[in-house]
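Researcher: Structure for this, please.
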Amino acid sequence: MNFLHKREHLNEGDVVVVQCSHQCNVRLTTDTQFSNFKNNRQHQYFGGFFKMLPARIAAPHTGYWNITIDLGGGSANIQHSISIIRNS
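Model: Predicted structure, token format:
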């Protein structure tokens, strides 16, 4: 499974902004759910498949969050950026 990953400490209401050169899946997961994702197990996440970018996902609570980008099984040379709009 190919994906891009970044781990960030987010406060509740912080917004993750993902820009990508291709349509993609963007997931915001806890550490436990990220482990499930990496091991191809069922997992819960915030986000989903985005045809229109940038994707914007708000952190539902304070803690460490994993931001992943993947092409849903496809492959491409993508350009991307991940930024955070802090809620403070």
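Researcher: Any notable elements?
Model: The chain has one domain: 4-85. The beta strands are 4-10, 15-20, 24-29, 46-50, 55-58, 63-70, 80-85.
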